[in-house]
Amino acid sequence: SVAHIANSLSKNEKILEFTVNTDEISITGWDHVANALCDTTTIASTYTSNHTLVDFGGWQRPTKISWYLELNKNPDKTMVARIKVIDCHFARNFEAGANHFTGIQPFLVAELLSFVHRFLLLHDKTRL
Fold it and tell me: N or C end of the chain, less CB within 10 A?
């Protein structure tokens, strides 16, 4: 099922593309794929989500999935992780690619993300 595939891809660091017939993916299936690409459970889980996969299925997929896949094309995976954290945990409105972190000073966000990165390096080296 798509849930099993998405779960396997969530910790992937090698597979760049995965081809599947997107006509057969349900809304729930797409939610599983979105969660693999950007797990919003906690800031740490978002930071360590899949930042490797750049293509999933065909051209017909939800905008949010396309945006995550496009973002993953950036070779700077630390930056990808930071953008996902800002977007998921500090943005007020998610519109494909729009990052609005209303009320939070950019330097504060940068410091927070730097802290999260240092914390993960110290405490969970296997996931970076």
Answer: N
Residues 6+ apart with CB under 8 A from 122: none
H or E element at residue 17: strand 17-18
What whole-number distance in Å separates Cα of residue 118 and Cα of residue 126?
A: 14
The rounded distance, in Å, linking the Cα atoms of 8 and 2 is 10
CB 4 within 8 A of CB 42: no
Q: Quote the DSSP letter at residue 73.
A: T
Q: Is 122 helix (H, G, I), strand (E, B) or coil?
A: helix
- Name the helix (H) or strand (E) containing 85: helix 77-89
- Give the pLDDT confidence score for residue 99 in this predicted structure: 45
Q: Give the model confidence (pLDDT) of 16-39 as tens digits.
A: 888 877 778 888 989 999 999 999
